[in-house]
Design a protein that fits this description.
The structure holds two protein chains of two kinds. Chain A is mainly alpha-helical. Helix content of chain A is 45%, strand content 0%. Chain A has one domain. In chain A, helix 3 crosses helix 6. In chain B, strand 4 and strand 5 form a beta hairpin. Classes of the chains: A mainly alpha, B alpha/beta.
Chain lengths: 201, 566
């Protein structure tokens, strides 16, 4: 890069303010990896939704993983940034279903909540059979579910900021005042994606 | 074959925290400097306040060259090796100083003279078994002026605790004497860190706000920190974090004596039959270049410094450059991981700010307390800090209160994700016979060169010191009202951003690659910069010491130009 480019990078107040504008989520271009095409068949999606809904259920305390966008996040990620693990993830879904049929004679999505939870428990403990590693599949599904619930909505998850609201994360801000860093106070949520169409902020 | 470039006075390999500092005194002295950097300039406007990008996917740090050269790690010389995907360092003009925490400390006087001071106070039996620890060839007072240069040229915020012997309890009363105050006041505290500071005082300890290379106010035309909270593994979009990309490197460019060659992937340092180095070979866009230089300064980070030397074999150096005494890669060590987390019964709001916005305590660090009967030397800085991100927060330990999923997990996390925090603990670490760097025998980079291999294991001295520090941190958290505390396991360090040694400085060429100035005992016109030259770690982040040493080496080169450049 030519050196005079660096010279032009001395920061005036004006460029700071211009460069620091957060883009409202409504103004965002579609997230980069989204082609509108799902990586899942409808059966796979149904299994994943059922699984995510047991990981973090929708209940009287509020929305669950699916309503928080976990599945749409995972779909977009496997179609883009995490494309390398698409095959193994979908294999994991097939293994969950196969194990459910073996243990309970029913597809995972059609099990009762108690039966589904028994499958999750067996996976987490490593006793579920038919997986290359049931523990690893459980850990990765859980991890990606959390990413989808609590990521910037730019990535297709955290629908309507429900994830951030759930844990009282007040959102990325350009500048943070001392009051925004006090203990034992409610910080007013700033419900904005930090990632605009030009990936700046 | 290689395209020959115009000769320069000095070729600096790597424009990160250390190389990016050394170019300034060289360029100011009128030397013609070629800065060979594997990365390129980064535009601060592309830095993202985004956890997935910076922390989960490591996209700022995932630069192809570094990630093709991630070292392998094994826990004994016969154990299996493992390898991560992402290097903790990055390639860019400014290097890892772009995304580091910017904690910017001086070491203590004790860190320079640990061996002799330990023997003096506790007897020779207190020296850890198997250590290759030596006193540094310089003391704190000799480095003080260079620490001062870094604090003012790079820009460090902080509060002095000891100005020429005058103690100020607002600062760190345990610090070694400094000539003058920091150029900027410390970063402000947060509700949480101020609370921790108050509690430390009630315990009779001496808390302070730690120094950081982050502007607490406008400095050198760049603004003060906005505390927006994506500093850890993220670049600063307003350039309030004082990476060398916005401080010393642009200042060196302004002299017109520094030419930056970006995307330059250095493969070898070339030496002649007389043992002097003649220049540097690098690859850019598939073509090989040779940059002749009167002096070469290697500043490519600890793992790569040893690796480039070991790869650079020649008639004069059949076992690698400057390795005729077999010391390249020896005396390697890294800070242990030993954090402590805590759960509070109310929201502590540590979402924003920067990890350097902390409350630190040195009462249990270094040799500031009597170690008689403790079974270890050295100590730990305790540092509860701010900056939590939402995925990280929700990935919290349930402290035995809830399962890891389901409605009970959700009920727990929705209440508690905003109520937990980690403290950062850094413990003095020393070199040992059986901890070292060499070349991996199997794993290679795409050019066919072996990657660096780390052999690293837990030592009793450090384990006990970490354990003692964790106990003190638990005490502090509980006094502050934490309802639960949890210790991270004390693990052997793997590939670390706090990696030291491999090219140690010292007067004895049998045990040190470099002399007291940072120049090779064997190849007189080769210098090495970075924490790889350090013989002890101290209980604090390495960067400012590595930078002060780099400035000192450059200053020595300027003053001794004729004798070194030949």
């Amino acid at each position: 890069m030519p050196q005079d480019d660096q010279e032009s990078r001395t920061f005036s107040r004006r460029t700071l303010i211009a460069g620091a504008a957060l883009v409202p989520v409504a103004a965002l271009a579609p997230a980069a990896p989204s082609s509108g095409q799902s990586v899942f068949s409808s059966a796979e999606r149904k299994t994943l939704e059922a699984f995510a809904n047991r990981l973090v259920p929708s209940d009287e305390l509020g929305p669950g993983a699916v309503e928080c966008g976990a599945v749409s996040y995972i779909d977009q990620a496997l179609g883009g940034a995490l494309a390398d693990e698409k095959t193994s993830f979908i294999q994991g879904l097939a293994d969950i279903d196969a194990y459910a049929r073996k243990a309970h004679n029913t597809a995972f999505a059609d099990l009762s909540d108690e039966q589904k939870d028994a499958v999750l428990t067996a996976m987490e403990q490593g006793s579920a059979t038919g997986f290359e590693s049931a523990r690893a599949v459980f850990a990765r599904f859980r991890r990606l579910t959390l990413e989808g619930m609590f990521c910037d909505p730019y990535y297709g998850g955290n629908t309507s900021f429900r994830g951030w609201d759930m844990i009282r994360y007040p959102g990325p801000r350009v500048a943070v005042s001392p009051d925004d860093q006090k203990m034992r106070v409610e910080i007013k949520p700033y419900r904005r994606s930090a990632l605009g169409a030009n990936n700046g902020h | 074959m290689a395209i020959n470039l115009k000769p320069v006075d000095v070729a600096v390999i790597g424009l990160g925290a250390a190389g990016g500092v050394a170019v300034l005194p060289l360029a100011r002295a009128g030397l013609k400097v070629a800065g060979l950097e594997a990365g390129t300039w980064m535009d601060p406007r592309t830095f993202k306040p985004d956890e997935l990008h910076n922390n989960v996917r490591g996209l700022l740090t995932s630069v192809p060259k570094a990630n093709q050269e991630v070292p392998t790690v094994r826990n004994s010389s016969s154990g299996p090796t493992r390898r991560g995907n992402i290097h903790p360092m990055m390639n860019a003009v400014g290097g890892t100083s772009i995304h580091y925490w910017a904690q910017s400390w001086r070491l203590k006087a004790w860190d320079f003279k640990t061996r002799s001071e330990t023997i003096k106070r506790y007897g020779a039996g207190a020296i850890p078994k198997g250590t290759t620890l030596e006193d540094w060839p310089l003391d704190y007072d000799e480095l003080e002026p260079y620490y001062d240069s870094i604090e003012y040229e790079v820009g460090v915020s902080g509060k002095a605790g000891n100005i020429q012997g005058k103690i100020d309890p607002e600062g760190n009363i345990f610090e070694a004497p400094r000539k003058r105050e920091y150029p900027m006041p410390p970063l402000r505290g947060s509700g949480f860190t101020d609370h921790m500071g108050e509690v430390a005082k009630q315990l009779g300890w001496h808390p302070y706000r730690p120094p950081a290379a982050i502007n607490s106010q406008e400095y050198q035309g760049r603004p003060g920190c906005a505390f927006h909270g994506y500093c850890n593994r993220g670049g600063c979009h307003i350039s309030a974090k004082n990476s060398t990309a916005v401080t010393t490197i642009p200042a060196a460019v302004k002299t017109k004596n520094l030419t930056i060659f970006d995307h330059a992937h250095v493969t070898r340092i070339v030496a002649g039959a007389d043992g002097r180095v003649t220049g540097v070979t690098y690859i850019k866009e598939g073509r090989e270049y040779f940059q002749p230089a009167k002096v070469v300064l290697l500043a490519s980070y600890t793992y790569e410094n040893s690796r480039v030397l070991l790869l650079s074999k020649s008639k004069a150096y059949p076992n690698g450059l400057s390795n005729n005494h077999g010391q390249v890669g020896r005396h390697y060590f890294a800070h242990y991981q030993s954090g402590v987390s805590a759960l509070f019964p109310y929201d502590i709001n540590v979402w924003y700010g920067t990890p350097a916005q902390a409350s630190a305590v040195d009462d249990w660090a270094d040799d500031g307390y009597d170690h008689a009967g403790l079974g270890f030397i050295g100590g730990t800085t305790l540092q509860p800090y701010t900056e939590m991100h939402p995925i990280e927060a929700a990935s919290m330990s349930s402290y035995g209160f809830a399962p890891t999923w389901g409605s009970k997990w959700k009920a727990f996390v929705r209440v508690n994700a905003a109520r937990w925090v980690s403290a950062y603990l850094q413990t003095s670490t020393f070199p040992y016979e059986d901890i070292y760097l060499d070349l991996d025998t199997e794993v290679k980079d795409p050019l066919g060169d072996p990657v660096c291999r780390v052999t690293s294991l837990v030592k009793d001295n450090e384990r006990r010191a970490c354990d003692y520090g964790q106990k003190k941190m638990e005490e502090w958290f509980r006094a502050a009202g934490a309802v639960q505390v949890s210790r991270a396991p004390i693990g052997p360090p793997g590939v670390s951003t706090h990696a030291y040694g491999g090219t140690r400085i010292g007067d004895n060429p049998e045990t040190n690659v470099l002399d007291r100035w940072g120049f090779s005992h064997e190849a007189p016109n080769l210098g090495v910069l970075g924490a790889s030259v350090m013989g002890t770690s101290g209980a604090r982040n390495p960067t400012q010491t590595a930078q002060a040493l780099a400035w000192r080496t450059a200053d020595h080169l300027v003053k001794s130009w004729k004798s070194i450049a030949g």
